[in-house]
Amino acid sequence: MYTQSLSIPDGEAKGPRKVENPDYLAEFNAKIDAGGFIEPKDWMPEAYRKTLIRQISQHAHSEIVGMLPEGNWITRAPSLKRKAILLAKVQDEGGHGLYLYAAAETLGVSRDELYEALLSGKAKYSSIFNYPTLNWADIGVIGWLVDGAAIMNQIPLCKCSYGPYARAMIRVCKEESFHQRQGYDLLLQMMKGTEEQREMVQDAVNRWWWPSIMMFGPHDKDSVHTDSARWGIKRISNDDLRQKFVDATVKQAEVLGVSLPDPALKWNEARGHYDFGAIDWDEFWSVVGGNGQCNVDRLAARQKAWDDGAWVREAAIAHAEKHSVRQQQAA
Ligand code: FAQ
């Protein structure tokens, strides 16, 4: 999308100008301080470029791995309407992955390199997608809590300093908003159903609440990518976003008629926020480190998709080569 007509200055084969230069740096900092966007052909410090490749590609990987827990339920959706909604949602997540890979490519890295980093386990993807979807209510809870957390994190990214990432986020957030609503609607319907359905919803909420809170990443004191805020990539810190999410979600849980599995969850008048219990960081780091319930299955599914798609990539290259020869002959 972004990358097709990108010709990079200074004669480099790909990627922006990498030479470090104090004048360029001053210009770059001034643009960031003024709230402007950095575009692919602009000079940028190498560390900024690397941080963006890391974050955008991990975000892209999260989207396409995130298709799996819900994709698993498409054939088992209880009605045609729910099947159509779920199919559209899962396709949207695949689309988000594609915008994000394209945005990362504008930074001078190839799709193959990014994909190789995912499949070899070098690059991370969101911890949340390593939990299993055990019952139909999980699909509603993913929409409500996981997409809800994703929107909370991604709205500020619409104003991030890197133009292609910020622009991709605008459309992604609109679609995530639909995802969140369809999930909440699904749960509202189930809560109006039988006792067994209400129990399924509560069970799903109990299992997904803490992993959703963990999605925002480690506490600020343990967050290592501090340059990200200075460069206007991350505009709100992990803990502040997590707090905003908890504050917004408690009321939604009340309306739904479910309890949140945290006895320490309590409104704090002095802070003007909800207090909540301690997060199990051992569990978080274990899942991030590859030892969650579904890490192995998720990567195996992505590897299979990559292998099964080899003929498509080969056909596309053959077509492009044929086209290029014809163009040369016609010239
Ligand atoms: N899982 O220094 P920080 C979605 C890592 S999309 C795994 O605080 P940073 C849509 C972090 O990478 C969900 N790893 O890092 C959807 C770093 O390791 P590294 C994805 C995590 O980057 C819905 C280390 O810990 N969203 O859900 C996690 O400043 C439904 C230290 O952390 C994005 O990617 C985690 N949860 O802040 C799809 C949004 N948290 O890289 C399908 C963009 C932290 O040095 C169905 N990303 N780590 O090896 C961000 O906003 C940031 O990257 C954070 C982390 C906030 C995730």
TrEMBL record:
<dbReference type="GO" id="GO:0097266">
    <property type="term" value="F:phenylacetyl-CoA 1,2-epoxidase activity"/>
</dbReference>
<dbReference type="InterPro" id="IPR009078">
    <property type="entry name" value="Ferritin-like_SF"/>
</dbReference>
<protein>
    <submittedName>
        <fullName>1,2-phenylacetyl-CoA epoxidase subunit A</fullName>
    </submittedName>
</protein>
<dbReference type="Pfam" id="PF05138">
    <property type="entry name" value="PaaA_PaaC"/>
</dbReference>
<dbReference type="InterPro" id="IPR052703">
    <property type="entry name" value="Aromatic_CoA_ox/epox"/>
</dbReference>
<dbReference type="GO" id="GO:0005829">
    <property type="term" value="C:cytosol"/>
</dbReference>
<dbReference type="InterPro" id="IPR012347">
    <property type="entry name" value="Ferritin-like"/>
</dbReference>
<dbReference type="InterPro" id="IPR011881">
    <property type="entry name" value="PaaA"/>
</dbReference>
<dbReference type="GO" id="GO:0010124">
    <property type="term" value="P:phenylacetate catabolic process"/>
</dbReference>
<dbReference type="InterPro" id="IPR007814">
    <property type="entry name" value="PaaA_PaaC"/>
</dbReference>
